[in-house]
Design brief:
639 residues, alpha/beta, Lyase, Ornithine Decarboxylase, Chain A, domain 1, TIM Barrel, Methane Monooxygenase Hydroxylase, Chain G, domain 1, ten-stranded mixed sheet, globular
């Protein structure tokens, strides 16, 4: 394929090509030696950088194979600090009279190491957790020690859920029950009276404001959870009648977890503040305004209001929220509420990277062609032979149409038995030869030749990689989420191939064929040719939000190996946690097989084969050992 540049290739060219300086947020970059580097605050608070390839070597020396998920604890800590410090600056600079108390939605990443780090680093800021289920509430109660931190309980809540939260409230936890539907209110009132504990009540309201981006179904009248304005008034009347209006202290709304446009954020805050002001006027105690999620991640680095980006910084996000709340509430003399955001995606996305190795490559290059062909060949194939080398910028579309016609006619003749296998093979190779000739001319062709724009995609390689999309990157398959993808080494070499990424599941959807680009998305990724006996490693970045939780067992590929690392002051890294990925026995048990029973059944089958003279007793022993080793082994491809 045509090379991407005529100049000597450097690490800086690779950084520009893959856009890492745009989406890496300062955490990821390309070092001069052509390896992706991770930069974060070390244990002494100063920035340190480490090579991702060196990290891979350390992981392998510790006995863990690819694929592996790397979590960088420093990055997770920095994101929590960045968010809280940005709000604190905005509060100080704006003269805001109440604090910020962030909460992390446990559903975004429930892994214990993640929650432990958030709780530990967030304790200084009173950073809490959002729980949408009883298990998540138990996680929050077991990890939060700061009494300044809030626990926001969303989702459906039964009596057991409410009793647990009320008892925690009595112990000193700041637990808010956010009412999502009116049917929850009677249960909260009844359990409160039964236990003699006054609840802290919040209410989720459906705003009319709509937003763009993925997950925007959380906004507008048709959002699943939350009360309409009419239902909110009904709730107020019920609380007044029950003499519990002082329990209503929090207003909550949620417009989506990835809001790319700052205008949508401002619009939502403005509408919510109008509701908040009127709740105060109605006599509700209030004091807390929960803006939900929405702080976006700039996955493509374009810094725009495009689907996978955001057109604002964290500082602008915080400043705008403070500005809108003050300008809306101050004229009415309403006291500033404690601000809560449920920023999950932006908190954890940057801290995790999925790494895998390439197993094989399929390309669409023509095979060897003869110097001449027989004049007795089928006329369609003779036409293809004559078409070679005749293309130029002016007739490129005509050559494309002719080659496609002759190739398709040859295929029809093959189906009819009028062309044999070798002749069809010749036709296919000739067609590919012509397509590559056209591709070399495509960049100079007139824009109206749209087929030429697709040639690079049609002729791109398929890189077969050692991972399961459905287990590790489910949002790519489910909702066309874009994540940054690039090789983590050899970046002083020009990538001369264009490819897509295929996983090792038996599913045609197990592929990545949309990639980060500053002007939308591109359908192929520049990659390097494989070298004999050398591994080629690719990283998928910013995958810390949702991907671990949503993954499934397609083809029974289980959880990957996980390495939790921390960058140290001397520019090295220490391994905090090493978690072995699922064994085959593990995933079989998930789908209700009993590995021991399976082994016993196979042993009986093997013994029968001995009795039938098919194998020897010694061979049976070797076979059983292999069966047992496979049960204990990794579900992914092992070299």
């Amino acid at each position: 394929m045509k090379k991407l540049s005529k100049h000597a290739w450097t690490a800086a060219h690779s950084a520009e090509l893959y856009g890492i300086n745009n989406w890496g947020a300062g955490y990821f970059g390309v070092a001069d030696n052509g390896e992706v580097s991770i930069t974060a605050q070390g244990t002494d608070g100063k920035l340190s950088s480490v090579s991702m390839l060196s990290l891979v070597k350390e992981i392998k020396e510790r006995g863990m194979d690819m694929p592996v998920l790397i979590r960088v604890e420093n990055i997770l800590a920095q994101q929590i600090i960045r968010l809280n410090e940005a709000f604190n600056r905005a509060i100080t600079n704006g003269g805001y009279q109440a604090p910020y108390r962030g909460v992390f939605p446990v559903k975004v990443n429930q892994q214990s190491q993640v929650i432990e780090e958030i709780a530990q680093v967030g304790a200084k800021y009173g950073h809490g957790l959002e729980a949408g289920s009883k298990p998540e509430l138990l996680i929050a109660l077991a990890h939060l020690e700061s009494r300044e931190a809030c626990i926001v309980c969303n989702g459906y809540k039964d009596e057991e859920f409410i009793d647990l939260g009320l008892q925690a409230l009595k112990m000193g936890y700041r637990v808010f029950f956010v009412i999502e539907t009116l049917t929850e209110l009677p249960i909260i009132i009844e359990r409160s009276r039964a236990l003699g504990i006054k609840p802290l009540i919040g209410v989720r309201v459906k705003l009319a404001s709509m937003v763009g981006g993925h997950w925007n179904a959380s906004s507008g009248d048709r959002s699943i959870f939350g009360l309409t304005i009419a239902q909110l008034v009904s709730l107020l009347d019920t609380l007044k009648a029950e003499d519990m209006l002082d329990c209503l202290q929090l207003l909550h709304y949620h417009l989506g977890s990835q809001i790319p446009n700052i205008r949508d954020i401002r619009t939502g805050v403005l509408e919510a503040c109008q509701v908040y002001r009127d709740l105060v006027t109605e006599g509700a105690c209030m004091g807390y305004l929960d803006l939900g999620g929405g702080l976006a991640v700039d996955y493509d680095g374009s810094k725009t209001n495009y689907l996978h980006s955001r057109n604002y910084t964290i500082n602008e996000y915080c400043n705008d929220i403070i500005d809108v709340v003050m300008s809306t509430l101050d004229p009415s003399g309403v006291a500033h509420p404690t601000l809560i955001t449920e920023s999950g995606r932006a908190t954890v996305a940057y801290s995790s990277v999925l790494l895998f190795n390439v197993l094989d490559v399929a390309n669409f290059e023509p095979g060897p062609l003869p110097e001449t062909i027989s004049p007795e060949e089928n006329p369609m194939i003779l036409k293809l032979w004559e078409l070679q080398g005749t293309a130029n910028v002016r007739n490129i579309q005509e050559c494309y149409n002719d080659a496609l016609f002759y190739r398709d006619e040859t295929r029809e003749l093959f189906k009819a038995g009028q062309v044999n296998l070798r002749s069809r093979s010749l036709a296919e190779n000739l067609f590919l030869q012509i397509m590559h000739q056209l591709l070399d001319l495509a960049d100079d062709a007139p824009r109206e030749h749209r087929e030429m724009e697709k040639l690079r995609e049609l002729l791109s390689d398929i890189y077969y990689c050692n991972f399961s999309l459905f287990q590790s990157l489910p949002d790519v398959w489910a909702i066309d989420q874009i994540f940054p993808v690039m090789p983590i080494h050899r970046l002083t070499e020009e990538p001369t191939r264009q490819g897509i990424i295929a996983d090792i599941t038996c599913d045609c959807d197990g592929k990545i064929d949309k990639f980060v680009d500053t002007h939308n998305t591109k359908r192929t990724l520049p990659l390097h040719t494989l070298k004999d006996n050398d591994e080629y490693y690719i990283g998928v970045f910013l995958v810390g939000a949702y991907q671990e939780t949503l993954g499934d067992l397609h083809n029974l590929f289980g959880d990957t190996n996980v390495a939790n690392v921390r960058i140290t002051a001397d520019g090295n890294f220490e391994f905090i946690h090493e978690i072995q990925g699922d064994s085959i026995a593990d995933v079989l048990s998930y789908v209700e097989y009993n590995p021991q029973q399976m082994q016993d059944r196979f042993r009986r089958i093997a013994e029968r084969a001995v009795g039938e003279g098919r194998i020897t007793a010694k061979e049976r022993s070797t076979i059983m050992s292999a069966f047992s080793a496979s049960m204990r082994g990794y579900t992914y491809y092992e070299r």
